[in-house]
Amino acid sequence: MPSSFLAGTAAAIGPPRHYSYAAVLLFIVLGRLFPAQAGLVLGVPLAVGMVALGVAHGACDQLVVPAQAPARNPLRTWRYWGRFLAGYLGLAAVVGLFWWQWPAATVALFFLLTIWHWGSADAPELNQIPVAGWLSHSLLRGMLLFAVPAAWWPTETASIVNDLLRFTGARPVSLSTFQAVAGGLGMLVAAGHGLLWLWYALDGRWGLLLRELTELLVLAALLLLLPPRWSVVVYFVFWHSLQHVLRLTGWLGYAGSSVPARRALLPQLWFYLRQAAPLLLLSCVALLGLGWMLAGRLPDASAWFSLALVVASIVTLPHALLVTLVMDAPQWLRAATRPVA
Question: How large a percentage of the chain has pLDDT more than 70?
Answer without folding.
Answer: 88
